[in-house]
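Table S2 (continued). Query chain:
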Amino acid sequence: MANPPASKRSVPTGFKLGDGYQTEISFSRNNAVKFWEKTIKAPGLDGGDGIDTTTQLNTKWRTKDTRHLQTLTECTFTAGYDPDFYTDILALINSPGGVTIQFPDDSTLTFWGYLQKIEFAELKEGEFPECTGTITPTNWDPANYVESAPVFVGATLT
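Corresponding output:
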């Protein structure tokens, strides 16, 4: 039985973000949507649960294998809004298009997706009116009818 190879951590290259300010979301279907981002949770990557490959011939350990497909997970945000935002929402809900997350260092993540839902917080005196939105990545180009991976473009810091 072979042991897995050991590795030693290397110093990473690049730049880490020092602050989450100023991250923005834009929709190709409406890049002037009437909300003002407060928080953004960018989509993550998920390889899925491992496939159980344990058989009656295993002697001590359960074994697993990896899946082949990956998932770009949901993106969520909170924002202030103009009540006229309802017009924007009606046009964006379930309408696939390009979505871009622009990070504070000007790097971008662009993917095909749609605005799945908007939920409004209670309106109260003395509190800033907010909404919470969920964007679902589709990884499907609706114009060309093909699977399409997200595209990350790194910042050009000098």
